[in-house]
Amino acid sequence: MQTRRMDKAGFEVGVIGLGGEYLSGLTEQQTREIFDLALESGINYLDVFMSEPEVRSNIGAALRGRRGQMLIQGHLCSVWEDGQYRRTRDLEKTKASFADLLARLETDYIDVGMVHYIDSFEDLEQTYAAGVFDYARELRAQGVIRSIGLSSHNPDVALKVVQSGDIDVLMFSINAAYDLESADADIETLIGFHGLGKNDWEINPARRALYEACERSGVGITVMKPLGAGLLLDASRSPFGIALTPVQCCHYALARPGVVCVLPGCHTVDELRDVLRYTDATEKEKAYSHVFAGSQAFRMTGRCMYCNHCQPCVARIDIAMVHKLLDLAGDEGPVPETVAAHYAALKHNADDCVACGACERRCPFGVKVRANMEKARNRF
Asked: Under a CB-based contact definition with an 8 Å cutoff, are residues 251 and 286 in contact?
C-alpha cells in the first residue's frame, strides 16, 4: 500500500482508505470480514459519519484489539434521532453523539474530528456560532481528537475554511464527472451534471483552486464519492456513457493536488477487493483519459448517491434505499423478483411519501426526491 503524508495532521495514510457508509445493514461478522481484508491489505484510514448505533458497534467490534492499526475520521454533528440519521448544529446533541461514537467504537480518542457536512456560508456561520469548532478545539486540546477536519461538497465554502487555518483535513467529493462541472455550478446541481462541457471540458476553477490551496497549506484531502456511488462504473448510468473501473476512479482522484486518500464505500469483501486492485494496477489499467475523448452523450438527470443526507423523513421512509431499489429496477420491463421482494419488505415505502419536500432541501446533490417517489409508486 502506497502512503501519503497529511502534513498538518501529521499522519501517514494509505492511499486507499475505507468509507463506512455502506457498512449499514451488515452483521457484525460481515463487518469484521471487511475489516480483516482492509487491515491485511494495508488500509489504515476509516471514515465514520454514520450515526446508526448498530453500525458503530459493529465497527468497534471489528477493530477490537487492533484500534491502533486504523486512523479514524469521526464526524461531529451527525446524530441518531427517532431511528434516523440527522445532521445537527445543536452543541449538546453533538456532544452526546460524539460520546456515543467513542463508546461504541471502544476507543478513547478519534484521530480526525470531522465537522460534518457544511455546504453553505449560512450553515458555516451557524456552525461557528453554535460553538462546534470551539468544541472541536477543546477536544483536540484534551487529546480526545488529534486533528480537526471538515466535510463539504462546496468548493467555495471549503476553500474559506481551509484558508482560515481552522482545519487540518478536508473531506471532499471528487470524481471525473464532478470536476467537469462549470465554474458557476452549485452543489444542488452537482449530481445532475448540468454544467458539464460549459467550461470547455476543463476542471472547474473553483475546485482546482481548492485542491491547490490544500496542497500549499498541508491540509490533506480525503475523498468521498470517488466512484460516484457506483454510477461511474455503469455505462448505462454514467454521464459519460462509458464505464470506468474502480481503479480508474481511484487514480483520477489521487491525481488531484492535495489528495491523500480515497474513501470508497464497500458493502462486501468482493467490492473491497475490486478497489484494492489499485495497489498493484499497471499504468495502463489506471489510465482514464479515454473517458474524455469522443464522448458527448451526457445524461443530465439528478442521481441519488445513497448518502442519506436527506434524512430524517417525516414518513420514516428510507429514502436512499427506495432510490437504490428504483435504480436496480430500471425503467422498463418487469422488476426483478429479488428487487421487488426487497421493496415489499420495506416498513415504509414511496406510498407513504407526503411530498413535503424537506428531503430535497437537505439533499446536497439536487435529487428530485418527490418525483422519484412518484416514479417508485408506479414502478413497484
From this structure: yes
